[in-house]
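Same chain as my last thread, 339 residues:
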Amino acid sequence: MPSRVLNARTGGEVSVAGSPLATFESLTQAAVIAVMGVAIVVSNLLIIAAFLNFKGLSNEVINYYLLSLAVADLLCGLFVVPLSVYPAITGRWMFGDLMCRLVGYVEVTLWSVSVYTFMWISVDRYLAVRKPLRYETVSATVQTRTRSQCWMVFTWISAAMLCCPPLLGYKKEANFDKETLICMLDWGTTYAYTATLVILVLGPSVISIVYNYFYIFSMKRKLNSGAPIHDKEYATALAENLANPSHWMSFILVTAFWLSWAPYTGVRLYEYFTDQELKIPMLHFGVVWLGILNSFWKIVILISFSPQFRLALRILCLTACCRTKGRLQAELIGMDNDD
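reply #2:
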């Protein structure tokens, strides 16, 4: 039986199956990957188009972060997912070592961008709850649209720089996994690099996300319990702010992201500490592509929990059909978001 992780050398083809003929299982996997790729691309194109088409969404800083997430997921659907369809059918990686390393680099970079962006979203929601009376003032000095855009540019640049060592030759071997059908970095052989990413990406992001949402829901629980708040103006502003569905929506987005990658993390940690590879059929394929599928769930969550996005999506559809964008926005902007 061939090794599960195979080396992809420049200019060569690496066989990952005993026969070049596609089996029913390989065709099924290719179909699943192709459908996922189309779903990810279409859903994130809709999100981006809705945000850019409806100018009313530019009033909230959080929407710029959501736009950044959609761009990251769109790039995943365009440059990562499609490259696994043909290898799933033929059982071979034919794009060479450089492309394999590039795919691994793009995956980690986009994943880091998502983690950082969720951190900024949690910070924005924390500011909204921590200073409800001064949130717009705070936003005018800290979280303006221009500054939020600068934070996103900084996030993309820093993620690209932190994740570039494999692309530049550090640990040159690129690994193609014949079970997951995707090129991935072998974290088990790059301990120093892995520890650096954990400290610089996961550490501050996870701590910030946990603390900020803990504070938000603690204040929500305090308000619902009827605990006395002596400043009535503050209490009113806090209640109005906590009623904003963006708090729950952003929390569900973060939760869906971590839950999607939890099975993969659990499997890798189990195999690392026990030094035993799990032989369950389709397990590795399932946990990796479940994590990648989180790039699609965003549109489902936005439609379910964001009245503002539903309005923007409706305007986008009507604009595409009627080509009367100015008139439609003027008519719909005064409508209830839940209509």
